[in-house]
Write a structure and sequence with these properties.
alpha+beta, two-stranded parallel sheet, two-stranded antiparallel ribbon, 2 helices, globular
Length: about 110
């Protein structure tokens, strides 16, 4: 989301191994579920008046953004002054902006038959 700050979420114990910087996560934002990218783990908790919600899912077995690409996103954030979330999202292919990773092409092509 094009916001100037990061959101803070709780990491459920069962998702902890998959929630690392660069990983895609599914999180609640208002009444929707959106895909986010983890920027930091073990960050300072939000203000006591704000209740952090838990991450709903971590759909990928490994981070969608590798450490070198993540470093590029941080550089884009600092050099151009763009929100980190926008910089990281720009590094993801469009198909990874949704909740599920694309399954790939079908096993049999269903083109014209002879």
């Amino acid at each position: 989301m094009p916001v100037p700050r990061a959101y803070t979420y709780l990491i459920p114990p069962e998702l902890a191994p998959r929630v690392v910087p660069g990983a895609r996560v599914v999180v609640p934002v208002q009444r929707r579920r959106v895909v986010g990218v983890v920027a930091e783990v073990d960050a300072a908790p939000p203000a006591p008046t704000v209740a952090a919600k838990p991450i709903l899912a971590a759909p990928d077995a490994e981070p969608a953004i590798t450490p070198p690409l993540f470093a590029l996103g941080v550089w884009i954030n600092r050099y151009y002054g763009t929100p980190l979330g926008l910089a990281l999202r720009a590094l993801l292919p469009g198909a990874l902006w949704s909740v599920q990773r694309p399954a790939g092409p079908p096993s049999r092509w269903s083109g014209c038959s002879r």
